[in-house]
Amino acid sequence: MIGAGPSGLVAIKELLDEGHSVTCFDQAGELGGVFRENIGSDEAGAYDSTMLTISNYMMTFSSFPPPSHEPRQFWSAARYRQYLLDFAEMFDLGHTIRYRTEVLGIAKNNAGGYTVDVATADDPQGVVSHRFDAVAISTGTHRVPNYPDLPGQEKFEGEILHSAHYRNNKPFEGSKVLCVGIGETAADVVDEIARVAATCTLSVRRFQPVVERYPGDGPHTNDAFTSQLLLSVPLAVANPVMRLGNKRNRKKADNPVSRAVAEWNSKNPDFFNHFLTKNEGFIHRIVDGRLTVNASGIERLGKDYVQFKDGTRRPIDTIMLNTGYREDFNIVKDVDASDVRTMYKHMIHPDLGAGVVFIGWARPAAGGVPACSEMQARYFALLLSGKRELPDRYQLKKLIERQSAYENTVFHGNPDLRTLVHYNHYMLDFAEVLGCSPWRAAAFRDPRLVYRLFAGSQMPTVFRLFGPHADFTAARRSIMGVPVAFKPRMVVGALAVIAVSRLLIALGLLKPDPVYRG
Questions:
Q1: Which single residue of 107, 166, 324, 429 could bond 333 by disulfide (Cβ 3.0 to 4.6 Å)?
Q2: What is the DSSP letter of 60?
Q3: Is pLDDT at 111 greater than 80 in this prediction?
Q4: For strand 298-301 and strand 292-294, is the pairing parallel, antiparallel, or unpaired?
Q5: 3-state helix, strand, coil in the chain (%, to 5)
């Protein structure tokens, strides 16, 4: 196991559950990945004020949900770090982890297993080789910041920074800042910088869809609506309905921020064909006039200014890049692993099989990475136990092609975000593979549970009701303890829309969704 962040920790737990012997190497001195406490200024990590964009019930693992009395809410990075520490203690994971150890390379050996070369921080020149039957790489996607080449940047005399290293807004007080790119972290970074900067300009290529943390200032977190009910609405209907909603909310939403979110989203007609930025923080600064947005593109930089393609020029002395991360799988030898969409479930390369897997490279458009990683970890552990088998090589490639084609089509708005998956489809299909689908006859003996499975959020705990290492009682208690966000009239309306749209699809009058499963 490589990496002791959230994905690595859940993989250790699932492997131990199946009776496997586990050794985990982590370059840091403590567990938690980007959420660990002692992160260096040159390392990617959480900033001081980080609040998760996924609620506690969607960010936690199905085997260790939040306390039953706790309401749905967004945890701070510190609270989530404590959760990971509690998770590791609960399942006695700490003894498997070797800290301050860097993995230098992974290669197949003549004995049929894999040789992993490592070096410790105390002796970086002393390379030690270990042999394992299988390897899981869980180092995560937030490791190597992406620094794009901006036209004319060699002439710019100011400072160019990346949000991976952002901690707080103090260094930006009184500055003239250009922020490039927007996403969930960027929504907070731009918000905080704009609060204290002399001027702040946001440059974007597209109006990435934004979802409020608490839509419409309501009581439910945004992921409360990630349900089987919503999944059942075809994209050919969902996008037009969203456009109509945005048109209405631009004028009639209850508060100026919600109206501004609707205005922003109105500029992108294909809402559900993108990664959803589940954080409206920066919109507040647009409303109060402290943030200017330019979507025309950067024509060039000068020594102290940025020239946009629409002719606008803005004086700047600092650039903050919110441009994400690039993938680096160079530690795996003799195989091209550069695109996770060429892997089954974003984790299994056809040339590697279950010998070397990648856990943590499935990023749902809505929903949490840890939930997807847990399903990957459960599958990996069962494969190694011989309780599940990979499809043959021909069938495996066909499955990869189909699921990759689905993701390429559905998420055409973010073609470069290769880790992106559809949470509901990904999890439900994986549940069929694992044998932990909640949709079985036994569930229908409990109508209240079925209602929550259909209209409630698709929390990780729904996949612990049945199947390997199930805990029906604990899973049901967690599911029943979380209120359904959809009101009964909304459920009835959605069912009517679903029925009509399916009829129109059957008649050839409406385009069906691409096929993911099968």
A1: 107
A2: S
A3: yes
A4: unpaired
A5: 40, 15, 45
Length of the chain: 518
pLDDT tens digits, residue range 470-483?
999 999 999 999 99
Q: Which long-range contacts (CB under 8 A, 24 or more apart) does 477-480 make?
A: 477/68, 478/57, 478/65, 478/68, 479/449, 479/452, 479/453, 480/448, 480/449, 480/452
pTM of the model: 0.95
Q: C-alpha distances in angstroms, 187 versus 32, 213, 257, 284, 347?
A: 23, 12, 14, 10, 29
Q: What 3-state class would DSSP assign to 122?
A: coil
244: left (phi over 0), alpha (psi -120 to 50) or beta: alpha
Contact present, 385 and 377 (Cβ < 8 Å): no
For residue 21, give the amino acid letter: S
**Residues 304 and 158: beta-carbon distance below 8 Å:** yes
Query: How far apart, in whole angstroms, are the C-alpha atoms of residue 251 and residue 122?
Result: 61
Calculate the alpha carbon distances from 267 to 124, 201, 206, 246, 445 in Å.
51, 18, 9, 10, 46
- For 137, other C-beta atoms within 10 Å of its C-beta total 24
Name the DSSP letter for residue 464.
Answer: G
How many other C-beta atoms can be found within 10 angstroms of the C-beta atom of residue 45? 22
Assign residue 120 a region: left if phi > 0, alpha if psi is -120 to 50, beta otherwise? beta
* Average pLDDT score over the chain: 94
pLDDT (tens digit per residue) in 492-501: 999 999 999 9
The letter for the amino acid at 199 is T
Q: Decide: residue 317, CB within 10 A, 0-12 exposed, 13-18 middle, 19+ buried.
A: buried
Max Cα-Cα span within the chain: 70
- The CA-based angle 340-465-477, given to 5 degrees, is 120
In angstroms, the CA 201 to CA 197 distance is 10
Contact indicator for 85, 93 with CB cutoff of 8 Å: no
pLDDT at 41: 78
| Whole-number Å distance between alpha carbons of 279 and 220 | 14
Residue 316 tokens, joined: 């700047």
Q: What's the pLDDT at 518?
A: 55
| Distance between CA atoms of residues 250 and 252, nearest Å | 6
| 292, two tokens | 């200017």
